[in-house]
Amino acid sequence: MKGAFITATGTGVGKTWLAAALASACVQRGKHVAAIKPMETGVDPDPVDALALARACGDESLANATGLYRAKEPLAPYAIEKRGGPSVGSLRGLAKRVRELASEADYAIVEGVGGVLVPLDREHTVADFAALLDLQTVLVARNALGVLSYTLTAVEALRKRKISVRAIVLNHVDRSYKDDLSRSSNADVLADYIPRIPILRAPRVQSPADLVDTASLLLNTLKI
Ligand SMILES: Nc1ncnc2c1ncn2[C@@H]1O[C@H](COP(=O)(O)OP(=O)(O)OP(=O)(O)O)[C@@H](O)[C@H]1O
Ligand SMILES: [Mg+2]
Question: What domains sit in the chain, N to C, each tagged with a CATH number?
């Protein structure tokens, strides 16, 4: 399976928007893409991330495919399990299901859940699942004050698990960061610390469709 795993420094930083844009950019290049959200929580009643990805790649059935983890509470999967809700079960099984769903596609675009060390069960985090998928890992981060430490922490955590980050996307998520002085220097500072990882900046936009230029650059970076 070839493609990208989209993870992040945390929740709500733009994984779905970027993954949807990436899937659309791939489709525009004439590729057959399977864009999948294997684990989604806060599903009440629809898996909104999975649906956004499925629509972007033109196969809505992917959102409600069997064998994927869905839970109602907007919590980490392990937190849900501890409350008596569904557990994610075998991560190998889940990774195998992703491979099956993407078996006819040229590329898989897979979105994680929350940030890199979100607990999936008692022993495993999103990083362990990323390692099983063995796709090119893309780290999305909010381009705002604080992102230097969040990003370097995430990169180190992934490296420790032998996962190299192929690209970082600094995403301009919030309108309220208009006066944030850090936004203009974050990419430069990070480049000095992690010179081998390409850093892209995604602008603040109205919809994921407007991120298609950033997504296209990212596809080139990943050689997809
Ligand atoms: N480039 C952008 N420009 C403007 N708004 C953005 C951008 N990227 C993300 N957003 C806003 O941030 C919200 C969260 O983005 P998104 O749903 O992609 O995050 P996520 O990392 O997938 O979150 P989750 O952890 O819940 O899966 C979006 O609903 C949108 O309002
Ligand atoms: Mg999402």
Answer: 3-219 (3.40.50.300)
d(CA 13, ligand 1 centre) in Å = 5
CA of 16: how far to CAs of 37, 78, 131, 138, 184, in Å?
Answer: 9, 21, 20, 12, 24
pLDDT in tens, 61-93: 999 999 999 999 999 999 999 999 999 999 999
Does the reported pTM lie above 0.85? yes
| Residue 97 Cβ < 6 Å to ligand 1 | no
> Three-state DSSP class for 171?
strand
* pLDDT number for residue 174: 83
Work out the number of other CB atoms within 10 angstroms of the CB of residue 117: 18
Q: Is ligand 1 within 6 A of the CB of residue 38? A: no
State the sign of the Cα–Cα–Cα–Cα dihedral 68, 73, 75, 78. Answer: negative
Q: Rounded CA gap, 165 and 157, in Å?
A: 11
As a whole-number percent, the residues of the chain with pLDDT over 70 amount to 99
Torsions phi, psi for 145 (to 5 deg) = -55, 130
Rg (CA), the chain: 16
